[in-house]
């Protein structure tokens, strides 16, 4: 780190007042965007000659585009500087992947960027996730700006985080913002790593990082339309069918145009149309939600979607309650499944206590869904080995099994 930055570890965990801290600045001039073969070749050479881990970040156009593709890739390595690569200018970035090889990646909130980086040929063999590591350290705030402020003593502006990164050319202030996201990731990684070692959590973190290497994105939801905002206002199965039909139509339009679904038709409009159940084109056309130009553009599709839902026989209407791949919501257990509710309560007490003993967030010690599944359908008999196998089957890492397995076995052994 250059002399303008304080040494890692000079700051305690209590964030100093933001107004008293200097803003993080680029140590070198803002690099030009890499969008030509010659510039890309220069980047490959520079990264290959650098030392140590490679800091990665990616910018998407969430809220503007349907796809989750990367529209800018930032990387920095000691001795190499920062590089801003426009992935849209290339078929893929596999040549960069080959140069990085098995060098450790540094990412913040890796699950956000790994899928879009994988799509363009960038796949880590080793990684260090500063956000996840911050959680294991039980730091109160683990956003990148918070960690930079708390651990390195600099403020980091995030004013362009929700920008439309598909825009071309990208404005210079956006590019500076993007470059700053990798400016001190190496220093942040080193400070967090030091704390992991001191707290005896380095091996836990390594297992967590290894588990991320195969991450390709969240599992698809069985009924994604049920996440429509305001769907609780839809009354009865027929209105739910209308929500589903309109959601599906919107999703197809959004995918074909690569535009965020909410920009095609807001969730509030879907719910309003479902509640109104318009019986003909004229009625639908006259609804206030059709004053929006984007909504009117696809009037024919909405008419077809509404008509299809209204024509469904009762047997094909969606159920009022969502289907679950696993146990039902825990809030219903105490009344309908009291024995399972008692097991869940005992398991949660065990996890909470162990988390407190080891200064961990309970959800990072063991995923709440894993606790619910084991309590809902415990192995019989609930021996330590059987519980350990059940936890592993639900994706728990070995360190989590070692810490929680014996206690959960005791909680589940009701004989």
Automatic annotation (TrEMBL):
Region (Disordered) residue spans: 1-32
InterPro entries per the UniProt record, alphabetical: 3'-5'_exonuclease_dom (IPR002562), Exo_C (IPR041605), HRDC-like_sf (IPR010997), HRDC_dom (IPR002121), HRDC_dom_sf (IPR044876), RNase_D-like (IPR051086), RNaseH-like_sf (IPR012337), RNaseH_sf (IPR036397)
CDD domains hit by this protein: RNaseD_exo (cd06142)
Pfam families: DNA_pol_A_exo1, DNA_pol_A_exoN, HRDC
Domain HRDC, residue spans: 236-316
Example GO biological process: nucleobase-containing compound metabolic process
Family annotation (Gene3D superfamilies): HRDC domain, Ribonuclease H-like superfamily/Ribonuclease H
GO molecular function: 3'-5' exonuclease activity; nucleic acid binding; nucleotide binding
Coiled-coil segments: none
Recorded superkingdom: Bacteria
Entry-linked PANTHER family: RIBONUCLEASE D
Protein's UniProt name: Ribonuclease D
Organism for this UniProt entry: Solicola gregarius
Taxonomic lineage from the root: Bacteria, Bacillati, Actinomycetota, Actinomycetes, Propionibacteriales
């Amino acid at each position: 780190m250059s002399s303008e930055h304080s040494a890692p570890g000079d700051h305690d965990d209590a964030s100093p007042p933001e107004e008293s801290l200097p803003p993080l600045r680029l140590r070198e001039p803002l690099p030009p965007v890499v969008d030509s073969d010659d510039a890309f070749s220069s980047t490959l050479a520079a990264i290959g000659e650098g030392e140590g881990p490679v800091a990665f970040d990616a910018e998407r156009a969430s809220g503007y585009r349907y796809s989750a593709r990367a529209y800018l890739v930032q990387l920095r390595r000691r001795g190499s500087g920062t590089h801003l690569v426009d992935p849209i200018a290339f078929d893929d970035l596999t040549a960069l992947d080959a140069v990085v090889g098995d060098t450790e990646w540094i990412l913040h909130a890796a699950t956000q960027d790994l899928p879009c980086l994988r799509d363009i040929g960038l796949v880590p063999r080793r990684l260090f996730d500063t956000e996840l590591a911050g959680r294991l350290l039980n730091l109160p705030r683990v956003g990148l700006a918070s960690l930079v402020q708390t651990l390195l003593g600099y403020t980091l502006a995030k004013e362009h985080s929700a920008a439309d990164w598909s825009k071309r050319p990208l404005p210079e202030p956006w590019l500076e913002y993007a470059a700053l996201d990798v400016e001190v990731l190496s220093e942040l990684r080193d400070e967090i790593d030091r704390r992991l070692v001191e707290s005896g959590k380095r091996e836990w973190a390594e297992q967590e990082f290894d588990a991320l290497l195969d991450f390709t994105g969240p599992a698809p939801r069985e009924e994604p339309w049920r996440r429509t905002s305001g769907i609780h206002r839809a009354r009865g199965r027929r209105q739910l069918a209308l929500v589903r039909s309109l959601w599906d139509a919107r999703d197809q339009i959004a995918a074909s145009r690569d535009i965020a679904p909410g920009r095609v038709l807001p969730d509030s409009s879907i719910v309003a149309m479902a509640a109104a159940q318009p019986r003909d084109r004229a009625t639908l056309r006259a609804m206030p939600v059709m004053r929006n130009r984007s909504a009117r553009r696809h009037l024919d599709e909405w008419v077809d979607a509404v008509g299809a839902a209204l024509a469904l026989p009762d047997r094909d209407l969606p159920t009022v309650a969502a289907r679950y791949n696993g146990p039902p919501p825990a809030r219903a257990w105490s009344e309908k499944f009291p024995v399972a509710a008692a097991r869940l309560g005992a398991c949660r007490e065990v996890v909470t206590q162990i988390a407190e003993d080891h200064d961990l967030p309970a959800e990072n010690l063991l995923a709440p869904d894993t606790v619910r599944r084991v309590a809902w359908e415990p192995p019989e008999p609930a021996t330590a080995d059987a519980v350990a196998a059940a936890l592993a089957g639900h994706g728990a890492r070995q360190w989590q099994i070692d810490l929680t397995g014996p206690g959960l076995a005791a909680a589940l052994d009701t004989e």
